[in-house]
Design a protein that fits this description.
The protein has helices at 30-39, 53-62, 90-101, 118-126, 135-141, 156-165, 180-192, 207-217, 243-246, 248-265, 340-346, 374-384, 392-410; strands at residues 4-8, 42-45, 81-86, 106-112, 131-132, 146-149, 169-173, 197-200, 224-232, 271-276, 289-295, 298-305, 312-319, 322-328, 350-355, 359-361, 416-417. It is α/β, with parallel strands linked by helices and 427 residues long. It has 2 domains: 38-201 and 375-391, 3-Layer(aba) Sandwich (Rossmann fold), CATH 3.40.50.720; 204-373 and 402-417, Dihydrodipicolinate Reductase, domain 2, CATH 3.30.360.10. Strand 13 and strand 14 form a beta hairpin. Helix 7 packs antiparallel against helix 13 (392-410). It is globular, with a radius of gyration of 21 Å. 47% of the residues are buried.
């Protein structure tokens, strides 16, 4: 289990450091604010993270300087990209390390992990990669170009700030951060320093989702009218079980939906109403729940629950001329999978396309599906100046949606405007 240090209070509604000041906010009463503070109270991981004054000075100096610059950069010339991993638990070990091993233009220089498993120690020893216990040690003792952050979700914001202030390009696992103010200030900091900063929303590089987006943006489905989505299951062990640390299914997995549906539709949502499972005005972080999002001309209804077939994920998009369904797992499976092939199928995506005039269609990946992995996409962005699959600026919308959904639950199912919380730029 993840080792923790002292608790530190957090609130989705806290104005505090680096908030955008003039930006309109959803109004909340003292009871909702108190409930949100309690729901979002986080345990701090023992990363020896300090609140560097230089970070906050840079952030405050950059407020109000929102740029419309894209996330494409000039190509980088020179030696391979030196990358450090901050947090190397199960996900990073199983997915990021193999992806990094396939990247010829990127070198894993060091790993920051205060509680390395025997398997991680073995892997690091065979490749001569040092393991350190603190971020200070990682940043101070190793010459790095970039950082990949794969830690408990509640400490993303602090770790991103530390790495950006050290001048590193950053790729962080989803969710981006848990608070909208953090999303805004970290985006400003990355853009001010002209650093590549991306969020690991892996649906954006999955062939099935790229196919679905191609059908929508090309007009093959006609006018889009309705979206349904369903997410079932959430890990119940380790830090995932602590909703205040992971965000629970509502934020931990719901962030995927909050990112991918607006991306698929290429549209900005207008408002949201949400309800926590189990009734009442409680926090949905542990129980999951439902949300109803209004887009221009489109309604999206989402169900996010912690029980059921683990990792089940489905998005259905209906247009006047047909529909597309993107789902995982593929085939009819039970949990837990009994074979390696079954385990692989749990993470594989498939798409189903029906055309009103032609019937069922065989899906085919569009050209942009050549992106291999999130790590590969990030390395290409840093070295070649390619556009990221999801930049910090683009990820602000997912934070706004999940924060407003939580606020709506705590407020008894009030419909809240989203247009006031979202920037037009990059979303």
């Amino acid at each position: 289990m993840w080792p923790y240090g002292e608790k530190c209070g957090r609130s989705f509604n806290k104005p505090g450091r680096g908030s955008s000041g003039d930006r309109p906010r959803a109004k909340v009463g003292p009871q909702i604010a108190a409930a949100r503070t309690a729901a979002a109270s986080t345990c701090r991981r023992v990363y020896d993270i300090g609140e560097s004054a230089a970070v906050w000075v840079a952030l405050l100096a950059g407020l109000g300087e929102m740029t419309t610059r894209g996330n494409q950069r000039e190509p980088r010339v020179g030696s391979p990209l030196a990358l450090g991993i901050v947090g190397c638990g199960r996900f990073a070990t199983e997915y990021h390390l193999p992806a990094l091993a396939r990247e010829a233009r990127c070198v894993l220089a060091a790993i920051c992990e205060p509680a390395p498993t025997p398997e991680l120690k073995r892997r690091a020893a065979t490749t001569n990669v040092p393991i350190v216990e603190s971020v200070d040690e990682l940043l101070g003792a190793h010459a790095l170009d970039a950082a990949l952050i794969s830690t408990p979700h509640a400490v993303h914001a602090e770790l991103i700030g530390e790495c950006l202030s050290a001048g590193l390009h950053v790729l962080v696992d989803k969710p981006f951060v848990l608070e909208l103010a953090d999303a805004e200030r970290l985006t400003l900091l990355a853009e001010k320093q002209e650093l590549v900063a991306g969020v690991g929303f892996n649906r954006r590089v999955a062939e099935a989702y790229l196919y679905g987006r191609h059908l929508i943006t090309s007009g093959a489905l006609g006018e889009i009218r309705h979206v349904d989505s369903l997410q079932l299951g959430y890990p119940s062990e380790g830090w995932y079980a602590e909703a205040s640390v992971s965000g629970g299914p509502f934020l931990g997995r719901g962030a995927h939906l909050a990112d991918v549906v607006p991306w698929l539709l290429d549209s900005t949502p207008l408002s949201i109403v949400a309800r926590a499972a189990g009734g009442g005005n409680g926090s949905p972080l542990a129980t999951g729940g439902w949300w109803d999002v209004e887009f221009p001309g489109v309604r999206w209804r989402a169900t996010i629950l912690p029980h059921g077939l683990a990792m089940y994920d489905e998005v259905r998009i209906f247009g006047e001329e047909g529909y597309v369904i993107v789902r995982r797992p593929t085939g009819n499976l039970t949990w837990p999978p009994r074979t390696k092939a079954g385990a692989a199928a749990m993470l594989a995506w498939e798409a189903e396309h029906y055309d009103r005039g032609k019937g069922s269609q065989r899906p085919s990946a569009p050209p942009e599906a050549e992106r291999r992995t999130l790590v590969g996409d990030f390395v290409d962005a840093v070295i070649d100046g390619n556009r990221l699959a999801c930049s910090f600026r683009e990820a602000i919308g997912s934070v706004a949606i999940t924060a407003a959904a939580t606020e709506s639950c705590l407020g008894g199912g009030e419909r809240l405007p989203l247009s006031d919380l979202l920037h037009a730029e990059g979303l």
